[in-house]
Amino acid sequence: MCLEKTELLVKIAQTLYDKSFDHGLLHVERVLNWVFKITEHENLNLNKDILLLTVYLHDVGRLIGEPHAYYSALIAEYLLEEIACPGELKFEILNAIIAHSYSYVNVKGISPRSDLGRVLSDADKLDALGVVGFLRVFMYGEREQRDLVFSIRHFYEKIFRLKQLLHYEYSKRVAGELTMKTSRILNELIRELNKAYFESI
Q1: What angle do CA 187, 190, 195 make, to 5 degrees?
Q2: Which pLDDT does position 198 carry in this prediction?
Q3: What does the alpha-carbon distance between residue 175 and residue 74 come to, in Å, rounded to a whole number?
Q4: Which of 9, 76, 125, 201 is the least buried, fewest Cβ under 10 Å from its Cβ?
Q5: How many whole angstroms separate alpha carbon 136 and alpha carbon 141?
Q6: Angle formed at CA 89 by CA 99 and CA 54, multiple of 5 degrees
Q7: DSSP class of residue 129?
Q8: Burial zone of 193 (CB within 10 Å; 0-12 exposed, 13-18 middle, 19+ buried)
């Protein structure tokens, strides 16, 4: 059974991530924490090893670039084949990886086909909210050399819309709380900056 090699595949996946707070291994570990919380609160019967495989593989394509969900699925497919993962399970994991990305889903019109995919999608989006999500936007923006206005607009164009895309009641409730927290922090930042050019946002 391929799940006997979960620990090995997780270790391989861990080496493919950098240590960055926003999209590196720390992000993956936070997503895993959200995944466990969602499955517990929603009483979902999901195999822990399958969850581990899916979460640790969901962003490995970032080492290549964008669209990272597509590249993550390619890498994941190769690794899952190496451990002789059955076709049906492999398809379910790959769909979850492809469908977790806000940007890729918008372009391709893909949706998660199972609880596995829906849980990953929700967990990934919850990590984009709250104080953690606030920091991630600016840390990623700095690395990508985005200006401050671009990063602030990103909250209105994407981050504050995420709560509408969640699948489970627990996720929606938490997202509502975290979105309000994010909004308060962002408004305080804008007030402190006191720049006229933010009035157009």
Answers
A1: 155
A2: 58
A3: 30
A4: 201
A5: 8
A6: 50
A7: S
A8: exposed
Residue with tokens 């581990």: 52
Burial 155-172 (b: 16+ CB within 10 A, else e): beeebbebbeebbbebbe
Q: 46 near 88, Cβ under 8 Å? A: no
Place of tokens 């990272």: 68
pLDDT of 114-156, one tens digit each? 999 999 999 999 999 999 999 999 999 998 899 998 999 999 9
Is-cis flag, bond preceding 86, omega within 30?
no
CATH among 3.40.50.720, 1.10.3210.50, 2.40.100.20, 3.40.50.300 for 2-200: 1.10.3210.50
Q: What is the phi/psi pair of residue 119, to 5°?
A: -65, -45
Whether the Cβ atoms of residue 182 and residue 129 lie closer than 8 Å to each other: yes
Amino acid at 108: K
122 touches 168 (CB < 8 A): yes
